[in-house]
Every structure is written in structure tokens, then in C-alpha cells.
């Protein structure tokens, strides 16, 4: 037998369900009230509690999730960058490019060029494209975004 | 050449917060069989596994003899946040498995999606552990790598 969940553990579990919903529907418009309802919290509480549990705002988490998916699409497909932006849930190319650069450290086009298929051993490619230490303003990524209370994914 | 004589992965531990609840989930929903359920005095040694397969899973209660109170609280935090590892299972009919688990009310984290290596979906156990269930396609490891990286291993 185990002991009942503590209040914090129960909160974690509910926030995990909300985060899973973001993972599942990352490409769709998501709003705070929907996610808050999954976590059994008010919309005004949701962003604060999410950040307490996961260390970043739901908006930032969703951005990272979308960028992660965009990285895959940029590598695996030849879809135009604009289409990739739409595919992963961004409503504007400008916001996508800005967010992508903020998260990854280079533009979507640069990323695609670096990861284009090349007929050389993958170990060489890995060494060639290994991420470098980022310095300067781009490294302070998380502070550049403010949480929007109504739309988690509002651009 | 293998010089250390290790022959198999025998047991893998999964942290759980209630062993009875874990036993019900892993046997009733995932179809695992009980391998051991032994009262060791200081802990309950509870292992389950997929019928016909040797590897077992130890449903290990967080807060057992290996954890002091502070560490146990930290691990419970991580489990409930979904921050610890998970299991990767295979199915011979991933869509049927998905439908059965969905209909049983199991938490679905991702619907079945086609991947370079097959079709898989995600669930969570009652405590937050991630479980992915995959039906492999016929792609070779090299083909899977090529799908992801656009190149093949040397």
C-alpha cells in the first residue's frame, strides 16, 4: 500500500494532465480556460501553478513543443517554412521565426540548411553540427515572453 | 566480445506510489502477469511481466528501504510530474490496444501516430509514468536513421 497523494503531488498530477493535453494538441489553438479545467484550477491560477510545477509558463512550454516539432519537419520534409509554421500551430511566420530563433539559436532556414541530407557519415555530421554554447541575449530565452491569460498559444 | 558474462536484462524497476493500484493497472489494463509477490519484511517484492517474455518489471514502491523520507518525497514529486523515465512496449495490433485502453479510461498522452519505425501511442500509468506502445513496421535500423537524419550510418 502507498500513502495518499500529498496536496502538491495531486497538483503535480493534475498539471501533468494539462501538459499532456498541450503535447497532444500542440498544433491546435489552445486556451487557458480549457487547460485550467483539465487541471481543476481557475484560469487565473493555471499559469502561476504551471510555472511553479514545471519552471516555465504554459505559453513557453507550448512554444518549445511546437519548435521541437518544427525542427523535425524542417529536417524530414521539404515543406516551405511558412507551411511548417502553420503545421505546428503558429499563426504568423514572423512569430514562428522569432520564437524558433529564440529557442534554437538560429533561424528556421539556417537550421534546415545545417541539417540538410548529406552523403557523408552521420558521425561526421554530428560533430560538424554539434550545438555550441550560446552567448548574449539569445541565451536569456525564457524572459522574453509574457504569458497571455486567454490564449496559451496567442502570438 | 562480451567479457563480462552479462546475458540479459532481467528486471527493470518502475517507481509506483501504491503497489496494489499498480498491480491492478499493469495486470488488468496491460495484461501483464505476476512473476513475484513476496513480502520481504522490509519491502514487498512485486514483479510483473509480459506473458511469454523473460524481462520483468519491479513495481517498486517509492519510499522503500532505499529512500530516506526527503529522497522519497523528491522522487514522488518527480513521478507525479511525469519527469521520470518510462516503459516502451510493443503490440501486435497497436490500434486494437489503443482502443481497449482508451475505452477502459486509461490516460492517453498521444493517439496512434505513424513514425519511421512503426505506429505508436502514449499512455500514463496511474502515477504519471509514461508508457509508449509501438507496433514496429519493417524498416531496418538504417532506414529509421535515414528517415530522421537524412543519411545512413557508416
Automatic annotation (TrEMBL), chain A:
Classification via SMART domains: HTH_ARAC (SM00342)
Segments of this protein annotated with the region Disordered: 135-155
Keyword Transcription regulation: yes
Alphabetized UniProt keyword annotations: DNA-binding, Transcription, Transcription regulation
HTH araC/xylS-type domain mapped to chain residues: 16-114
PANTHER family linked to this entry: HTH-TYPE TRANSCRIPTIONAL ACTIVATOR RHAS-RELATED, TRANSCRIPTIONAL REGULATORY PROTEIN
Protein name: AraC family transcriptional regulator
Organismal lineage: Bacteria, Bacillati, Actinomycetota, Actinomycetes, Propionibacteriales
UniProtKB/TrEMBL annotation, chain B:
InterPro entries per UniProt: Glyas_Bleomycin-R_OHBP_Dase, Glyas_Fos-R_dOase_dom, VOC_core
Residues annotated as domain VOC: 7-136
One Pfam family from the record: Glyoxalase
PANTHER family associated with the record: GLYOXALASE/BLEOMYCIN RESISTANCE PROTEIN/DIOXYGENASE, GLYOXALASE_BLEOMYCIN RESISTANCE PROTEIN_DIOXYGENASE
Name of the protein in question: VOC family protein
Protein species of origin: Nocardioides pini
Lineage: Bacteria, Bacillati, Actinomycetota, Actinomycetes, Propionibacteriales
